[in-house]
Write a structure and sequence with these properties.
Largest sheet: 10 strands, mixed
Number of strands: 31
Structural class: alpha/beta
Distance between the termini: 102 Å
Amino acid sequence: MAVYTTLFLTGGICLEYPSYNGLVRAIRRFTVRSVLPDSLLCLDRLAMNLRWCWHQPTQQFFESLDPEIWKETHGDPITLIGSLSPKRLEELGNDEGVVRRARELDEQLSAYLSEPRWYHNDFDNPNKPATIAYFSAEFGITAVLPQYSGGLGILAGDHLKSASDLGVPIVGVGLLYQAGYFKQSLTRDGWQRESYPLIDPDNLPLSLLRMADGKPARISLPLPKGRTLHAQVWVATVGRVPLLLLDSEVPENDEVSMRVTDRLYGGSSDHRLEQELLLGVGGVKALRLYSQITGASTPEVYHCNEGHAGFLSIERIRELMEGEGLDFASAIEAVRSATLFTTHTPVPAGIDRFNKDLVSHYLSAMPLPGVSTEQLLALGAESYPGGDASVFNMAVLGLRMGRRANGVAKLHGKVSRGMFNQLWPGLDRSEVPITSITNGVHGWTWVDGKFQDLISRHMNGAEYLSGHGWKKPVHEGGVSDEELWAVRRELRAQLVEAARNRVRNSWLDRGATPAELGWVDDFLDPDVLTIGFARRVPTYKRLTLMMNNPERLRKLLTDPKRPIQILVAGKSHPDDEQGVSLIQRLVQFADEHGVRNRIAFLPNYDMAMAHALMPGCDVWLNNPLRPLEASGTSGMKCALNGALNLSILDGWWDEMYDGNNGWAIPTADGIDDPERRDTLEAEALYDLIENTVAPRFYDRDEAGVPRRWVEMMRHTLAATGPKVQATRMVRDYVEQLYTPICEAARVLDSSGHVQARELATWKKQVHDQWSRVAVRNVTSQVGDQVKVGDTIRVTADVSLGNLRPEDVQVQLLFGNVDQEDMINDYAIISMDCEEQKGDHWRYSHEGALKSSGSKGYTVRVVPVNPLLDSYKEMGLVASAERSARASQAHTQFGS
C-alpha cells in the first residue's frame, strides 16, 4: 500500500510522491537536517567541534535534548540534531533553561579555543615550532567518525586531543575512507564476517575545504599511464586542532581513482601504494592549500606517524627543487632537518614493503628535475646486508628522511634499534639513533563519566588533566575505600548490561531465535571478578593463550567460591587466516553451555565498545609474545579507571609495572619451541589468577570491601595515572623532539638554505674520503699493577685522507670487558688532537681510573659537524683493528 508524502520546496513548489512499506537497500544514506531556531544556532558549532567527544558536560547536554534519540544514534550530536522534529526544536528554542545552557557551553568552548594554555604559558622556548604537521593513515577521534582500525589510530586521535588541550599548534593529515575499517560480525559457527557500510561525509562532523569562490578545494597528483588522482579535503575540528582528510570520491576521477580512499588497509599492492602516495604527496599539497585558504602558518615540523605517509618527503623535496632551486642532495638535507619518524611496529612483517618495480612505476610518473627514479628508490632501498634488493621499505624511507626517530615505549625503542641496526652498521645497536617516547592515552576521553564525577569532586580540572592531582584525593583521605569500591561495582554492572545487549544482538545476528536466548539474562554477574582482553588479532598477541589448557580455564570460570568472567574482543585483518581462525576457536569455546555465562567474544570492537569495556573491567589482560608488543595502550585506559593490569612485561608495562599496580606474567624467554613457551606462560597465567589475583579480589572485610585490592587501585591512580596520560606524551614530543627538530630546520632553512647546501657538500666529501680514514696505531701507558686512581694515557695515530680534524671526532671507548674482550657499558671520551705527524694525526687522552675490575678500550673515528643531529647520523665509523689495539687486551685493575 502506498502512502503519499509531500515535500514543500523553496519558491512555493510542492512535490508529492508515493512511499511504500517494505525493505529496499539504499545506495547512499544521509540525514536531512532541520533548521535550528535562532536561539539555538550555537548547537551547530557545539556539534561540529569534536571537543564534545571528550567534554562530558556537552555530551550530557545533547543527551538531555532527547535521551532516546541520543541512545539510538549512539551519542552522535549531528544525527541527533537531524533527527529532532521542527516542533521539538521550536520547543527547545523557547526553553530558557536549554537556551541558557547551550550558550554557557558555547562560551566555554570559545574560552577553550582562545585562552593561552601550556604551550603558551609554561613552555617558554624560543625554538618551539609555530606549527607541526602530524601525518597518520588513521585517526581514532570518536566512533562517530570511523577512520581507524586499532591502536595506531586511537593513539593518533589521543595525540591530537592532547595537543589541543595543551595548546600545541598541530594540524593533522590523513585520509577519509568511504567505508572506514570493516564492521565485524560472526557466523553461526563462529567465523568472522566482514562488511563495509558506506559513510556519507555530509552526515559527519566535517566541513569541506572551499576556495574563496565557494568551490570545493582540490589537490591532484600524477599517476602512471597519464592518469591523475584528484582529491577534495574535508576538515574535522578536533578542539583547537584542524584535521585534514583527503577524499578521492570526486567526479574528476575515473572509477578506479574514486576508490583509492574506499577502505582502510584494504585492496591490492597498487591500491595501498596509491593510498600512501595520496597521504604523503597529497597530504603536503593539502597543507599548502589549507594555508593558502585560511592563512594558517606553514608547518615547521613534519611528524610521520608510521611509514604510511613516508612519501611526504618526496613531495617536499620536489617543492624545494622546483620552487627554490635546490639540488637533490641539498633538498634532502633541508627536508630531513624538519622531519620526525615514529615507528610503531616491533616486527618486520608489520612494515609496508612494496615491490621496487611497482614503486618505480609510480614515481616515474612524478619525476623530479635532474633526479633519476633510481635515486628516489635508493631512499627506501634495503641496501644493507640481509636486505631484500627487490623491495621498497617505507620504514627505511622514514628513517632515512627523518632527522630523528623514535619508538613508542622504552623496550620498543630497544627492539627498534636492533631491527634497524643495519642502517647504521658501524654503530653498536645501543647507539642506533632511535629514541623512544612512551605512548599515553587521553584522560578526558577514556575515564568513564562516573569515575570522573567521583575524582573531580576532590580536584580541579587542571589537576585532573595533568594526573598529578590524583595523589591528594586517593592518598590523603579525599576518596574513601567505600566510594572507590562502589564506583568500581557500578562500572562493572554497567559493563555487564552492555555486554548482555551485545551478546544478545550478536546471537540474533548469527541466526538464533529470541526463544533460545533466555540464558543471556544471566550472562555475567556484576559481582564477579571481570577480566578484559581486547585488541587486534595478529598471532603474536596470542588471543587464545588463555585457552592453552581448556580444562584449567573452565575451572577458573566456574569456581564455586572465586569465579572469574572474561570478555574478549578484537578484529583480525580479513587476509590473516591465522588470526581469523583464532577468533573462531575462541568463539566456539565461549559458546559451550558450561561456560557461556562466564566468557564471551564481543564482535565489532570499536571505540564505542571500549568506552564500556575498559572502565568496567577489574583486570586487563595482555599476553603478547615478548618483546613483540610496541606499546599497547588499552591497559593504560583501564588503569585510569582504577583497573589493575595483568600482563606480560612488554610494551608500556615493561617500564611502568612496579609491583603494586597489577601483576607481571612470568615469561619463558629463551625457549625456542613456541608451543612449549605458550604452555609455560599459560600455566603461569593460570597460577597468578588462581592463587593471587582472585583471592585478593574476593578477600573482603566486614563492610564487603577488598581493602588490599582498593589499595592497589589507589596506587595505580596516583603512581601510574600521571605516567600514562597523553598530555605527558605530547609534552615529551614537544620538548624532546619537535623543538630540537624545529631549531635545526630553521638553521638549514635560513638564508636561502645556505646551510643545507653546505651540509650536503660536506657529507659528499666525507663519503668520498671515508675509505681513507683509519686508526693506524694505538698505544697506552699503564703499569703492570694498576690501581684505582692511577692515570692511563692512550694515544692513537689516525689517517684522515683529505679530511681535517674538525671533520671528525676520535673517540676512546672505555669500560668493563668480558672474557671475549667485549666492552660493556662503555663511556665515550673525545680524544684531543695533538699534532700532525706526516700523513696522519696524533690523538691522545689521559685520565684517572675510577673503578676496579677488568677494563678495556678501543678507539674509533666518526664524522662530526655542527649541522648534524649527532655523530651517529651518517652511520660512518672507522674503528681500530685488532692488531692496532694489541696493547688494550683486558687488564685486571686492582683496588
